[in-house]
Input
Amino acid sequence: MDVPVYKEDQLTGGYNQHCYVYDLEGKPCKRCGKTIIKDEISSRKTFYCDRCQS
Ligand SMILES: [Zn+2]
Output
């Protein structure tokens, strides 16, 4: 399923930052406060934080 796991995802320790910021387009990143960006790759939505991603 496509359940966002960013909040409960303690075990995986941020293996997937797309999950971490999932569905937060235009909202501040929970880690650094930078605005989340949405991307669509092959019709698959991807959310990411510019700062944390790099
Ligand atoms: Zn961030």
About this structure: The longest helix spans residues 17-20. The chain has a mean pLDDT of 72. DSSP finds two helices and two strands in the chain. The helical segments are 17-20, 50-53.
